[in-house]
Design brief:
binds protoporphyrin IX containing FE, alpha+beta, Flavocytochrome B2, Chain A, domain 1, about 80 residues, three-stranded antiparallel sheet
Length: about 80
């Protein structure tokens, strides 16, 4: 894999995959929490944060969703 690109941060929530690489520095909860969930299912942690269920968060997430990404926990999705 080329390292010319910034290291991607891909997380999975409710069986959808999101590329949060660029968003990470803007995330109110910090970049480190997103990095910790790289290639993992973050559904439970995500659902514990009240603000995550606001409509503007859903809009943000729609833009970050990777539509054809295999689930992180499938053999093909494991990196
Ligand atoms: C696509 C994924 C995510 C998006 C778009 C997102 C977005 C946001 C936004 C907008 C807030 C502020 C909410 C508010 O109080 O109004 C927030 C807060 C927070 N997020 Fe996320 N988040 C994502 C994933 C995660 C994950 C995976 C974690 C892991 C635990 C996390 C942990 C937190 C925490 C702890 C806060 C609270 C920060 C505070 O109020 O001090 N987030 N997030």
């Amino acid at each position: 894999m080329s390292q010319a690109q910034p290291t991607r941060i891909i997380i999975q929530i409710d069986n959808h995959s999101f590329d949060v690489t660029e968003y990470a520095t803007k995330h109110p909860g910090g970049a480190h929490v997103l990095r910790r969930y790289h290639n993992r299912d973050a559904t439970e942690a995500f659902n514990h944060v009240r603000g995550h269920h606001d409509a503007y968060v859903q809009d943000l997430m729609e833009k970050m969703e990777i539509k054809d990404h295999p689930p992180c926990d499938s053999p093909i999705g494991r990196h």
